[in-house]
Records
---
Amino acid sequence: MTLFIQQLFNGLALGGVYCLAAIGLTLVFGVLRIPNLAHGSLYMLGAYVTYFFLTAVGVPYVAAIGLAAIVLAVVGILLERLVFHPLRKSPHTHHMIAAVGAMFFFQAVAQVIWGADFRRMESPFEGTLSIGGAQISWQRIIIILTAVAVLALLTWFIKRSIHGQTIEAVEQDRTGASLAGISPNTVSMLTFALAAALATIAAGLVAPINLLSPTMGAALDLKIFAIIILGGLGSIPGAIVGGFLLALAEVMTSTYVSSAAGEAIAFVVLVAVLAVRPTGLFAKAVQR
Amino acid sequence: MGASTTTRTLRTLAAAVCGGTLVALAACGGGTASSGEGGTIVIGYSGPLSGGAAAYGENIQVGMQMAVDDLNELGVTVDGGEYTVELNSLDDMYQPNTAATNAQRLAEQDDAAVIFVPHSGGIQAAQELNSGRSEFLLGAYSSDPAILETDNPLTMMVPPSFKSYSAPFVEKLKTDGVEKLGLLGTASEYGQSWTSLVSEEWESQDGEVLTDNSIDYSTVSDFAGPVSRTLSEEPDVIFLGGPSQPTALIIEEARGQGYEGSFLIMDQAKFEEMELFTDPENLNDSIGVVPVREYEDPGTEAFVSAFDELVDGARPATSEVSLHYQSVALSVKAMEVAGTIDDPQAIRDAIGDAAGQVDEQFHVSGFPTEVTDAGHLRNEDFQAAYRNSDGEYEFLPIEHAED
Amino acid sequence: MTARISIQHVGMALVAIALVIAPFALAGQDYVLRLLTMAATYAIAVYGFNIILGLTGQLSLAHGGFFGIGIYVVGLLTTDHGWSFWSAFLAAIIVTAVTGFACGVVALRTRQEYFAIFTMAVGFIIFLILSRWESVTHGMSGISGIPFPEGFGIIDFSEPIAMYFLVLLFLAGAAYITYAIRRSGVGRTLIAIRTSEDLANSIGVNVGLNKQLAFAASTTFAGVAGGLFAAVQGFVGPSSASVNLTFELLMFILVGGLGTVMGPIVGSFVVTFLFETFQDFQSYRFIVLGPVIIALVIFAPRGIVGYLNAYVARRRAKRARRQMAPQAAASETKEVS
């Protein structure tokens, strides 16, 4: 039972990270129909920029994440302007290859600036909390809480604020939105900025329990793609459910079956779900 | 996109492109002049300089470059001619087939007679080449004994075989009352071989081996899950290891979750690196390989401080750095002894004699004192390091396993 | 008409001649020959990509995985089970065709991006099986000592040049099949599916079955390439089947030209050469290569062959307008697919 509680919290923390990273990806997909394979590298850059603010500039942890999110929002906008905007009329194969090119580039840049060796980031939240005999580190609890808070804020932003509503409008009907005077360019940039900022928050949260390296995003890429497909491309609730579901499946499978099965489970679940429902769990009207 | 036929000129043009490429390839193939009369000795290196293992590959590159610089300062004379040593590195991203391509390129285009490859997949792929097609002596840095099982006559195995470690490691930790071994190694070629070796050894000494929780250290986002699972079976000893930094993190996580037993750490992880990534106290009561700085060889001190200066104190000198430093010097000495810079077989044959003649400054961390017939470089004073509960290192002599 | 076709064949022949004389021009340059052999091996897999992506318009990201199945069937059967190369190679072709078809049954229920990511997951699962099912595949340790194909008479495949020609033979076969498909009704059916599945359906095309067959054909090409790759390398590890390989192959075909007959060859050779040149930059090379890749898809989205195609088409259209306008234009539309 202790093991179960322990793994439940581990799974929730992992789920929080997956969600934050996956939502950006699904937003970009919903609005622009771009499968952005470079999303993992934005996550990686976010971690390094947070690290930079924390160690080289010396601002506190939370502020460092905030500043990094702003920097990455700018990087996201640049990525949209320089790479994806010129490709807006191309088929998605071209987006994918361009994204792979961007991924190579970001990884190489991180390696040149920060070196190839692993970095460790300290968090002010140390120590562990004992729940039902299980030892859960504060950092993981912070991850779960922040994920919930950010997700709530994001939902509010998209449903209530003017800028957020434009995103949803474009997602639902591109032509209609532009007829209503919404500029697709502005929305594209806003979406990329938001996605990169969310990835940075995820990275800033997870960095203290893992290590920074130029390839840290590549491992995440495949998983978050599995998540957004599972949830239904472009669906935010889908990404949230998918994120927590896959994280829990991963942790529980490696606990009760085997660690190799745990590595594969995300993809097995994905294949199984799509075999039954080819459009994911929360199919939206994106399948045009 | 109509291709089928708009294409006659197009096909001609495509042909031109293809042909042009071939010509360019040919040109780049024929461009290099062969050395021979004198001038330059090229030492080749193919390792991961980008991608997930780049830190490892770059570290080795630094060690080799240090040796090259020191050799040039001392001067190299082969068969009466003065030579400058040069290091040529290529990136293989840890891919076996790329490593083999690189090795062939280094051997043919740069006339490198000695080529170092630091991963067993790349070594085995390169061995398919130097047994007949391209001639080069392979400086094989992998403690996986599989690289000697191929009976390749032009292989020089640099580090000790990991087979030598498992028995003494297990003997040291499996004291009275210690029964259960948890497995938490990395899921790489290397980790998998280590895991099965240690499991066998543990079982042969009547211990119980628990579930195999190997995970890929480079792709897992949070180590807490696998650690919790391993601890739930209440192991007395945990076997683990991969790159030092994630290994340190897993050890910290295990201690954080209340584990008090000992760790059996595979040779890929280094104490000196792990100390920097976690509170060193977490590492107490574990066995692993001897930190380079603990050696008392003539060149150890100078080497450790030179490396420190070179990398600005960013990371410590580990054995992959020092062993490459040593073996580059040994290879060049073997050329001097053999009197040739381009006959790999002669160079290989001269290594045994050369080992005794290498300048003392290159003796850093167990300089080879013998070379086996299979080409394994060995030092007779071979030790393991046990970090006791006070954080002190104790050294225990170990025997080299049969290759 | 006659002249047109013969000149077109001259173009193809020139490519063929360049590839055939290359090893003789490069006598003693085993390294360059190795690069050529590798590029040719990959080009065969790229032809598979061309059928499913270029002609049918389905982005399958499982291609690296099926390449891996080809490698492992040949590698494991020849080493652990003592099969001859040729029987193992045949087995590889059958296995990739059958698994490809079976996989297609499920995969092709999904469409567009779902299909892309679904197949990416399939590719990754294949990679995980190859790298983690130790008792059968040797896990991460890989397979060493894969023999060369058994020779016939005086042909000895341990000679790199013989191996090169063997690969080249299969490459020519792949190119010819693509050429034949493009000219046949099958090709038109596939292109109709690429243009619009609903439309194809409404004119009586069995969309499901045709996609299914195209998918199985593409995985078979990957299996052929994988089987040859195993023999060329002698040692293989699971990293030869990683998802990254799929993207590399995708890059080859985009650079060469999607849907074209010569694109896979041109793309594979040009990119292999490009990557090899950038080796000198070591860890900095992707700072240059990354933007180069992006620039290629932005500025030459149709690939080298596709771009040349369009250029030729424009010129010919101009000339046609100048000469006997109606007649030439008719043949133009007929030929440009």
---
Amino acid sequence: MSARDERRPSDPLDLESLPGQRRIPEDEDEAEGTETAHEGPAADREGRGKADSEKLDQYLLRVYHGWKDSEDPRVHDDPVKRKRAMDARQQLITMYLPLVRSLARRYASRGEHFDDLVQVGAIGLIKAIDRFDLERGVELTTYATPNIVGEIKRYFRDKGWSVRVPRGLQELNIRLNKVIDELVPKLQRSPTINELAEAANATPEEVLEALETSQAYNSVSLQASPNGESGEEDAGLIDYLGGEEEAYDTMEDRTTLAPGFAKLDKRERYILHLRFFEGLTQSQIAERVGISQMHVSRLIRRSLEKLREEIGDLDNPMPPRSSDDER
Amino acid sequence: MTERISLEVPATLSALSTVRIVVGGLGARLDFSLDDLDDLFLATDRLLGAALDAEELDSIRVDVLVDDGTLRVSAGAFTSQSLRQQISVTPGGCIDLCILLQRLVDDVTVEEQDACFCVVMTKHRKGPVA
């Protein structure tokens, strides 16, 4: 037994002598694939495998819950134990953030900022860590995944709507997003309302009403920096655009001079360019950019609204109101 | 046979929702694609929005004509020469109302009605009937 192994049982709060860090895969396939990787070659050299990495999770959970669940007030009040417990919790959060990012990426095409989704997902992760029951004998990943996904879904359900929309219509709207994404490649064209209704198990009237509710969706993103100056927006854009960067650069040369465009973020400029200068349909843009058709629709509206606000007189090439404007 | 559905809605942005629902229902009947319908929604919104900015109106009359794979949305009656210019003339290089309507619908015409005019936007169904 190594010195570390000897120390661990006797000093569960010693965070300085932890076994090899577990790398949580960001890629979904990798995550589902499953083999656990280790942080560095040193770990492999020492022959610590998956079991050892899982021990780290369990160890940190024991440290944290040993303090949190303790009924002994002396344990709770001990500042050293408290700090070690909170350090363990923080380390668990850091370790599992890649999992949160991986899950958040699944929902990145629904109109919310990726970083916002990561933050929301992180709340789910923290809840999972706090509620984890060591006696259950499951891995934290298994327990945390539905918590993270659930938190993100709740966010979309309750907070993504700027106007209160009936739950049924919200759910149908979300379902339509998925149905559209499935139907477009299958039909090789944009679906009709009747096709959407059939696929979503709804009436055409309900589909129209649900689509209308999307007008009430997503006011949060309107607050984002129009230039993406934070850098976060640009990072998200790269996630969305991937291999389109070259085409995007070409577009930049041709459209940055257009009035008002400077106030749009890169993705908005790109989408407007594709729609109004290249003549692509919303479905074609959705495919190219890697987001849903409904999201493209919302982004186009949002971008045009920004343009209108920025250069209000752009729509009005005439001089300010004159006498010929009979009212 | 051409069908005509006539609406008179208050001159407010919130009333545009009613127009969209009616246009959407008729477009659905003609098996318009979601892309085409959304283009028509956007064109209608922008035209009526510009009209509300340009004129002090109490209400807007919207006629939707349905004819064998074609939707015509006629809005009026307007008097603003500024609005007429916005629809007909583009300085180019930017997405103004004129460019926007040209890209979103198949045809845009201004029809004179005495001292007023109305704007007629035409959108044809693309591709075979689903």
---
Amino acid sequence: MDLDRQRELNALRPDLLRFARLQLRDAGAAEDAVQETLLAALTGSHRFESRSSYKTWLISILRNKIIDTIRSQSREVSASSLAADEAGDDLLDDALFDRRGHWQDSATPGRWADPEASFEQQQFWKVFEACLDRLPAKTARVFMMREFLGFETDEICKEAGISSSNCWVVLHRARLGLRTCLETNWFAGAET
Amino acid sequence: MLNCRQATELMSQEQDRPLTLVERLGLRLHVWICAGCNNYRRQMGILRAACRRFGSGGTP
């Protein structure tokens, strides 16, 4: 049986919009990408058995729209704006490492119990989104190009106009910040 | 000998490029003796799995 498309689209629209906003950090551009996705979806003739498979398909269309948007805004992530992100990095660094570069006692990474069980909980993904949203804007953009949109680092460097070593630094900063946020706000509380 | 800050940099970079032999050996030794970095390395894997899931719309 085919889904009631219009109803399902309306129900999934907020998810799509959040996904696009996280990555584009621009409400107008996100709205455009979602609109184009919905148009493509309404004219498509695929059939879906469930909302989750429908959502997966919509997200894959949306991902391509986001990639197009990023490519058309090439070099928007300039080296200078990445430098502005770095001010907060030093603070995080001091909170995590001592002067010899070893973990501070209070910041030593713990063991994350049963991540698969976390992945099944909607609350986990709320925390995950909030943590992504807390990353500095340009850092987050580079990270999501790599991890959600599947760009290779070479291409990110080109689009962002930065060197590969700079790209690795930015990705490292993003991962460090994200895992610290997840540990603090999710896994530390979930330990038994 | 790597410190933890340097080890975390390599643990990120191994997700983006092949490490050199010297880097791999240094990291392996460090992770073997450092529980915090051993956990960190697992966390990098979990983070990537979470991103795959989120990026493909597979969240509940």
---
Amino acid sequence: MSGVRVLVGTRKGAFILTADGKREKWDITGPHFGGWEMYHLKGSPVDPNRIYASQSTNWFGQLIQRSNDGGKTWEPVGNKFDYATVPGTHQWYDGTPHPWKFARVWHLEPSLTDPDTVYAGVEDAALFRSTDGAQTWHELPGLREHGSGPRWNPGAGGLCLHTIILDEKNPNRIVIAISAAGAFRSDDAGKTWQPINRGLRSEGIPDPDAEVGHCVHHIAMHRLRPNSLFMQKHWDVMRSDNAGDSWEEVSGNLPTDFGFAIDVHAHEPETIYVVPIKSDSEHFVPDGKLRVFRSRTGGNEWEPLTKGLPQRDCYVNVLRDAMSVDSLDSCGIYFGTSGGQVYASADAGNSWNAIVRDLPAVLSVEVQTLQ
Amino acid sequence: MIRVILPAHLRTLARVNGEVSVEISGEPTLLSVLNALETQYPVLRGTIRDQVTHERRPFVRFFACEEDYSHEPAETALPSAVVAGKEPFLIVGAMSGG
């Protein structure tokens, strides 16, 4: 029987939520790694029982955990992230040069074809790859050495590579995003990279149309339409239909176009979801109402989805990796909040339920569809 | 044998309860204790000091015999009471909440 497994990373541990295909009754295990920041967990598309998890604290640094049984048991694997070349400097918040230094892994992206291959997006921004089940990590230095690196500057959370998109139709294509450098694309499996930020406009940088320096918060892609990318930028929701060569704004009638999370319906490539956040200094939903906005037109025309979500006195945030979709016939949408709730919709967003509501602040939500 | 007390999270990682003991060949120093500890418990690599630079992680402190060894050079000899096993070497997570 089909079902779903929801992998939730929080400020103080990981939790795993499972349900059958009806998605009404949920079993919850955890906290796994209680007390540690679990920035991201993600399962292999080719072996769902293989899950990778990023575990860190400011005290004891970065670890990577791996499960081979769907999250029942875990083993620590390689945690040495050594830049391949002398890393040099990026910009600090005040524009002065600042030495590149590894801090943590923000995002793990398992290969679409090999359960032992996994990519890691790290702070300070770089892309690493392991081909031995995360035992050893090797940087793909062409990104950091693109040449624009000295002009990258950190977002509030650090200079983080937080988005990694693989393309099942084109194994040589990788799209990544960095706060605050922007989006980059490789068409040769990560050897060389080009910035793909044309059309982005950011008032917080000296040249609003600069080639790099944009605070891209997240990018989503439908697997069957890889040239269409949807971006939640610091401000502005954007789309590209040429794999990032150019972007156009599709914020349309959103109440605010600041936000972090964005995702695409599993079966409808033009149906996208965002959670508008009031502003870059007020990281909570506007008007005390938690609303997911859905566009069935690939942007510009948005409808609020509120049934089952708190519509008064709610001031939570939803972070960039804290939204995910399942691929059951009736697409499920999931997101987690800074207040520790994980909401799920089994009907593409028409109605919502809190499937757990008192976790530590949620950092990431990933869903595995199990057959 | 050098007795070492780890912070709770590292005991969990290393799957040990209470204090641990490490064997040192040669003169026991800060460096040799950390090397021995990471050899005996590979999962601790990177948690106490950076794997590349070997710098102590900023939120980790080293105490022994009521003295702070956090900022001493790596080749600093451990106090005789620690070498004799009368006192433990303490690795402590900085008391900074969170």
